[in-house]
Specification:
The protein is an alpha+beta fold. 34% of the residues lie in helices and 19% in strands. The structure holds flavin-adenine dinucleotide, (2R)-2-hydroxypentanedioic acid and zinc ion.
């Protein structure tokens, strides 16, 4: 799990006087110290990371966020901004006793402009709620992810979440037009703009996109809200090899072109897990036991009456024809196109809910990497080989890869390695499921191997989930020391006392390391 947690920094300890100051700012109800509130905000979605915050603060306005941070900065109290707490790298929960700043009360959609195709909302707006508000105006959010029912737009911006439709909408670095951010000393940066063009010096908002709460608290977001399609089609194709999955992607880019919204893949192990774990999940192509599956989503706009536009029926015919042509040319073994919205959503769920199935199965080691598309699945194969080699090197089914056998042995026969992800973006989700729990021995087989292998391909050790508490010490696999040092200097500009989300993203300086030894 990324080794031992970083030692507690030299931050102040929360006192009754601090709680009284917070109550003054927020009112009694929004300063939570009860066990239920603290349990929920101290533990992450995977139940892998757990902190020990003594208070959860729930502001409703930017001015309150500003007053809280002013107080914390003056006192030297550490703070973790928390959105929907669906992050997968332990970034949104405390490592030690940091104060949790929950954004859920700041959830208003402030303005929607259907002509410009823009929306402004508060950071605590749940992505699915925003989607519904936009759908009512014929618009859609520029991102979609499996956690949409819980994650917040401020969390999405702060992690630079990618998700399922990046193929169509691009990254949030392009879709976000403006932000309001409160920096560590309580300063409010009003960078909220809905302009498409604004070349007035440094584009400061970009620094906060993907900063994971280490530079400031995002309080408002302005972003593009594209037109909602009048119809979508989902197809699942079974393919005989990963190379065929890549060939199907290449083909889709030319044949489905502008309509393509998503191009995802999963392997057989992922499908088996979903089928055995999630109620109602059905094999999309029960006659074929393929090693890989690709999922496409295509969109149609308009009602077919305008020049060059097609009806949804015609668009679906086009997708069916594409699937048929893949089969005819031997790229796909079989394929199915969703017959209606219910069928389409059942097909999507097979891909979208793999993480939920993994959570049901027990402990899981997650790696979220960017790699050259053709080589993406090699990492899954290499990981399986490595696991098998260490298992056969062991005398029994229990294996130990580290010094203390008693604490590191695990039953390798229960461990499974899954590969799935956003094929259209070159983003692999390598997941190693260990139903019996986390084991240092298993971790030693996986790390630093996965990071080193990724670095050798000049990939990224975090494609979309971020660095959080999991990977600060691995950052050097994806960034050189000069770049990491530049990041530290940026941190010092916005948060000189280092109170915002300490222990996350940035690795400690070597000198800091040494002084602690
Ligand atoms: P949190 O988990 O609460 O926080 C995440 C980070 O952002 C933390 O560092 C936190 O401190 C910071 N933060 C949160 N809010 C603010 C704020 N207002 N200001 C400053 N910092 C803030 N991720 C993807 O990229 N693509 C996917 O397809 C995807 N699918 C997922 C599917 C499931 C089932 C789950 C559980 C997770 C998935 N994720 C995915 C990961 C996660 O949902 C995203 O990282 C999401 O953007 C996190 O949003 P959140 O509101 O839950 O943030
Ligand atoms: C997805 O694409 C998410 O489903 C989660 O990014 C991936 O759980 C994971 O590893
Ligand atoms: Zn993903």
């Amino acid at each position: 799990m990324g080794g031992d947690p970083a030692p507690r920094g030299d931050f102040a300890v929360l006192t009754d006087a601090d709680l009284a100051a917070f109550r003054e700012i927020l009112g009694d109800d929004n300063v939570r110290t009860d066990a239920r509130s603290l349990d929920a905000c101290n533990e992450d979605w995977m139940r892998k990371y757990r902190g020990n915050a003594g208070v959860l603060l729930l502001p409703a306005r930017t001015s309150q966020v500003s007053a809280i941070l002013r107080h914390c900065n003056a006192r030297g109290l550490a703070v973790v901004p928390q959105g929907g707490n669906t992050g997968l790298v332990g970034g949104g929960v405390p490592v030690h006793d940091e104060i949790v700043l929950g954004m859920r009360r700041m959830n208003a959609v402030l303005s929607v402009d259907p002509v410009a195709g823009t929306v402004v909302c508060e950071a605590g707006c749940v992505l699915e709620d925003l989607e519904h508000a936009l759908n009512a105006r014929g618009m859609t959010a520029p991102l979609d992810l499996g956690a949409k029912g819980r994650c917040q737009i401020g969390g999405n911006v702060s992690t630079n979440a990618g998700g399922l439709r990046l193929v169509r909408h691009g990254s949030l670095h392009g879709s976000v037009l403006g932000l309001e951010v409160v920096t560590a000393d309580g300063t409010v940066l009003d960078l909220v703009r809905t302009l498409r063009k604004d070349n007035t010096g440094y584009d400061l908002k970009q620094l906060f996109i993907g900063a994971e709460g280490t530079l400031g608290v995002v309080t408002k977001v302005a972003m593009l809200a594209p037109r909602k399609p009048t119809g979508v089609d989902v197809a699942v194709c079974a393919v005989g090899s990963f190379a065929d999955a890549v060939a199907a992607l290449r083909d889709a880019r030319t044949k489905l072109g502008d309509c393509l919204q998503a191009f995802e893949f999963f392997d057989r192990a992922s499908l088996e897990l979903v089928l055995s774990t999630l109620r109602g999940a059905r094999d999309p192509l029960p006659k074929t036991k393929a090693p890989f599956y690709v999922v496409t989503e295509t969109a149609v706009f308009g009602d077919g009456s305008g020049k060059g536009s097609v009806t949804h029926r015609a668009a679906r015919r086009r997708v069916r024809a594409w699937v048929r042509s893949l089969r005819k040319r031997g790229v796909a073994i079989d394929g199915v196109v969703g017959e209606d919205a219910k069928h389409a959503s059942a097909l999507w769920n097979l891909r979208e809910r793999i993480s939920v199935a993994l959570k049901h199965a027990g402990a899981v080691y997650k790696y979220d990497v960017s790699l050259p598309t053709e080589r993406m699945y090699d990492l899954v194969v290499e990981t399986r080989n490595r696991l098998a080699a260490s298992t056969s090197a062991s005398t029994s089914t229990s294996t130990s890869a580290s010094t203390s056998a008693a604490s590191t042995s695990f039953d390798a026969s229960k461990v499974s390695v899954l590969g799935y992800g956003h094929l259209g973006d070159g983003n692999l989700h390598l997941n190693v499921s260990s139903p019996d729990g986390y084991h240092p021995g298993l971790e030693a087989i996986l790390e630093p191997f996965v990071y080193q292998w990724t670095a050798e391909q000049r990939g990224s050790i975090s494609a979309e989930h971020g660095v959080g508490a999991m990977k600060p010490r691995e950052l050097a696999h994806s960034k050189d020391e000069a770049s990491i040092e530049a990041m530290r200097r940026v941190k010092e500009v916005f948060d000189p006392r280092g109170i915002l989300n300490p222990y996350k993203v940035l690795p400690p300086r070597l000198t800091e390391h040494r002084s602690k030894l």
